[in-house]
Amino acid sequence: MKKLLVFGLLILSSFSNLSAQGIDFFHGTWEEAIEKAKAEQKVIFVDAFAVWCGPCRRMASNVFTNSRVGEFYNANFINLKMDMEAEENMTFRKAYPVSAFPTLYYIDFTGEVVQQVRGAQEVDAFIKLGETALGKIDRSEEFAEAYEAGDRSAELMLTYVEALNQAGKPSLKVSNEYLRSQEDLNSEANLRFILEAAVEADSRIFNLMIERRKEIEALVGKEAVQERILYACSNTAQKAADFKTESLLEEAQKAMRANYPEGARQFILESNLEYYLARREDQNYLKAAQDYRRKGNADDQELFRISQDLLNFFSDNSKCLKAAEKFAAAACTDTDQYQILLHYATILNDTGKREKAIDIAKQALELAEPAGRGATMQVEYFLQQLEG
Questions:
Q1: Domain check: are 93 and 120 in the same one?
Q2: Fewest CB within 10 angstroms: 56, 144, 171, 190, which?
Q3: Are 88 and 181 members of one domain?
Q4: What is the pLDDT of residues 245-302, one digit of tens each?
Q5: Residue 228 belongs to domain spanning
Q6: Which helix (H) or strand (E) holds 242?
Q7: Is 248 exposed, middle or buried (0-12, 13-18, 19+ CB in 10 A)?
């Protein structure tokens, strides 16, 4: 189930056309953020920054504004920015010390630190941090004892299944057992439960959700139901890769077409990529990558990721190697990330285009300077190797 959770988050984060750009930060006090996190059963992400901090400003400009970052963090966290030198935040700083800027805190609604990281992050690393934080949350044991003792109240069951899902643990058996015991599946409590329990598209509970879609949307809104459809379909697509069962992938894609048509094209493109990468099928992955570039919402980071995958997993295929170069070149046309140019320069050098590699590496060096000495040293070392 952990793998399903991560796969679902990866696909969710690719839907930049279906949500606002960048992180939507909460405007309220720390106490209000705690209450909101408790009500929504979410972790709080805190950007503990200082106004004068250069890396903090770069994250604010280049990472927090990224569409994939926004999609992922808005769906999974209550997001808060706190100036650690502002008088009103001194109480927070005493409870959660900061010795370097930025410090990125992940805190649960009880006030416990789930994860703490010092230093600025790039887009992919920042998303990975969030995934890691979510994976550390497991409150299911708090409710398992009452469940084993026979408590089947609607309140406990919803909270228990929420905790299982958040921890990436299997929940379908528990959910099915509960729903089979219910006489009225259309009560408000059970409609909310069905929404939370619909974790895979190839399940009876998913069908129950679709059958009661209008009633559930009246309670939680259309967007919440769309998000659950996408999440369930993503999990079924991951299961398809795990069990090498293409019919499951087709079932997930069919469910998206039928129930979330506005998101279906992007989902199909992304799930094909993930499926054929997991299966290490070079020809099918190459076709999926080319389709994604032509038809999808591929930004510089997505093109960079595909180029890396082509290079790392399919470099024995000459067509894939050429495609890796093309994807890297396309990623460089509109990027301010030195790592992307450095990646492109590496491919150029490996394919015998040394002079062009030097030119691109010099451009990477210019972009690396604001990122600090470590970044510039990395590019300078590469240039030294090229220029010999």
A1: yes
A2: 144
A3: no
A4: 999 999 999 999 999 999 999 999 999 999 999 999 999 999 999 999 998 878 888 8
A5: 139-279
A6: helix 222-242
A7: buried
